[in-house]
Amino acid sequence: MITHNMAHAIEYGNRLLMMDKGEIIFEAEGEAKKSLTVEKLIDKFHEIRHSSFGNDRALLAK
Predict the structure, then answer these.
(1) Where are the domains of the chain?
(2) Tens digit of each residue's pLDDT (9 = 90 or more) over 7-59
(3) Contact at 8 Å (CB) between 60 and 10?
(4) Are 13 and 28 in contact (CB under 8 A)?
């Protein structure tokens, strides 16, 4: 499944890949994925890319 909704990305599937500009920048599966929240994903994006997250659609709740 491909989605821009971070809540759905965390909830569904058994593996999560975060991409930016066509590049995989973060991957989580198993227990690491289960412990994720939208806020943690945004923090991870900031940590990796050193920039703000600019897509509000990805932050939509279920």
Answers:
(1) 6-59
(2) 999 999 899 999 988 999 999 999 999 999 999 998 999 999 888 766 655 66
(3) no
(4) no
Give 55's DSSP letter: -
Residue 13 has what pLDDT?
Answer: 87
- On the 0-12 / 13-18 / 19+ scale of CB atoms within 10 A, 41 is buried
Burial 5-34 (b: 16+ CB within 10 A, else e): bbbebbeeeeebebeeeeeeebebeeeebe
Give pLDDT, residue 50: 87
SS3 46: helix
pTM of the model: 0.77
